[in-house]
What we know:
Blueprint: E1 2-8, E2 13-18, E3 22-28, E4 35-41, E5 44-48, H1 51-57, E6 68-70, E7 76-83, H2 97-104, H3 109-112, H4 120-129, E8 142-144, E9 148-150, E10 156-158, E11 167-173, E12 177-182, E13 199-205, H5 220-232
Antiparallel strand pairs: 1-13, 2-12, 3-11, 3-13, 4-5, 4-8, 4-12, 6-7, 7-11, 9-10
Amino acid sequence: MNHYQTTIAPGGHWSLELRRGTVLRLQDLDGNGNAGVLFYNSRNLLERYNAPDTLKCQHTFKLTRGNCLYSDMGRIFASIIEDDLGWHDTVCGNSHASHIEDRWGARDYQTDRNDWRQNGYDAFLVEQAKYGLNAADLAANINVFSKVVTDSEGNMSLVDNHSPAGSEIALRIEMDCLVLIHACPHPLNQSPEYPRCRIGVSLGLAEPMTEEDVCLNHCDENGRGFANNALYHLGA
């Protein structure tokens, strides 16, 4: 059951402090979308999502069902309990104003208004400012719904049409955290026109985790991550 729903407009952004035991469900409403996502510990904003630790401790280049999203303190912000796609990027980071101008032309809000072409970096800065954060607090983000592959020489490229309209991913929130989301293009997007893809957001309550949980048992490192969370919440 969803207790809250909203839609992030193309190029838009959104944030909220989420409680442990919440399910955050994201939906690619139009297809071929991208949702930039960052996590912070809402009690200690110095603790934030760590992409390198998330990948290396789970021995993966991509994120999908069973993977956990780690902080730089070895704790788990969220676990992926459902996933329609099997691949989400957490390597390429954000689009910047220079990317937008190079590919789709200079932008000016006074001129463009509803056709404003926002970038992920500035979108995150707007949301960060609401919580006293700034550019120094940015970390490498997740690009939900985006798949990045490499060729034989190591060059990365974005897979077009990876995410059909209606694709979903569900994240179980494992500790109280601040989540920031934007609906701006992936930095490797080569579309001839600025992508205008909406991202659906819904919140509900998670079922209690069992000993057979797919995220808990995905790898030994995840078991240790959940143990770190249990210690952090001891007495709560």
